[in-house]
């Protein structure tokens, strides 16, 4: 009998093969109702507990994982050739980073955001004796793994990216450079839920926003907040924006152009990823301002136009952009929101709008 070689053109992607080999729980689908409730299991690679989250809207350009570190525990030191943005969901701890030079450490707590620079050795510690630490990370591991399809290259690579990190002592101090268009460059944000935001008229709803450039990554982040009884304008963009609710309660509508809308109800801890070029629109029908953190492609310093076209995000569809103005939206959208506010007791704060005739 002749041994038939396995047909290489029918194999799963390198990332999918890696996911299966890690032997940890994997969440697929459209959204995660509560990141704090995601079931975790021992993850040998981390020496802690974890679960990977590969939502449909990422189109396998990026992904997420939850890691839980037991009281007084630590993860195994790691380095890897994919970017990683970390948001702390629960607890208090510290991270140590190093290259060839001396080690340096910084502390964080629930609500902190940071990024370990690309391919830097790092180790996270739980500084509490009684509670686990839980964090969510968004990585571009799928993209990197599928591109090079060599896991040894991705996890055991000695290259030092001097352009990202040169052992600067104040790297994680929270110091920031401010640029126009609400862009802030920093490598550590101590408390995202209370971080002061700037007015952002273009997306409507009396919203506020700040965009973060972290660790010279091609991935980036932003935080947005909008008041009770308001909703934002619909817009669309590339894949992989992980929207994590960090304040308030409400829902979002998501739809591919001309097709049925899908609804996601959210509260603190919910996460969803609008699929590529799907319109999405966020509604605050709760009792407090709604705030979310988006971990996504779209660095302004290191642009990747195939993933994220920043220039069209705030431009009216009629002018060739990717935003639907209130005047052009389906009146059912407003009616549903009015209904939801009545149901929840939230005061409707959207000014009336006259629908524009189709151009
Ligand atoms: Fe978006």
Tell me which CATH architecture of the largest domain applies here.
Sandwich
- The secondary-structure class comes to mainly beta
Gap between N and C termini: 69 Å
CATH topology of the largest domain: Jelly Rolls
What's the SSE pattern?
HEEEEEEEEEEEHHEEEEEEEEEEEEEEH
CATH homologous group name of the largest domain = Jelly Rolls
Strand content: 25-35%
Characterize the structure shown.
The protein has 359 residues and is mainly beta. It has two domains: 8-155, Jelly Rolls (Sandwich), CATH 2.60.120.10; 177-344, Jelly Rolls, CATH 2.60.120.10. Helices cover 10% and strands 33% of the residues. It has helices at 14-22, 141-148, 151-155, 331-344; strands at 26-27, 31-32, 41-43, 48-53, 63-69, 84-90, 92-98, 104-109, 113-115, 121-126, 133-139, 177-179, 183-185, 188-189, 198-199, 208-213, 219-226, 234-235, 242-247, 250-255, 262-266, 271-272, 279-284, 290-297, 323-324. The longest helix is centred in the C-terminal third of the chain and has 14 residues, at 331-344. The protein is globular. The termini are far apart. The relative contact order is 0.13.
List its traits.
Jelly Rolls; eight-stranded mixed beta sheet; globular; 2 domains; nine-stranded mixed beta sheet; mainly beta; about 350 residues; binds fe (ii) ion; 25 strands; about 35% strand
How would you briefly describe this protein structure?
With 359 residues, the chain is mainly beta.
Summarize the SSE layout with pairings:
Elements: H1 14-22, E1 26-27, E2 31-32, E3 41-43, E4 48-53, E5 63-69, E6 84-90, E7 92-98, E8 104-109, E9 113-115, E10 121-126, E11 133-139, H2 141-148, H3 151-155, E12 177-179, E13 183-185, E14 188-189, E15 198-199, E16 208-213, E17 219-226, E18 234-235, E19 242-247, E20 250-255, E21 262-266, E22 271-272, E23 279-284, E24 290-297, E25 323-324, H4 331-344
Fe (ii) ion is lined by residues 235, 237, 241, 274, 280.
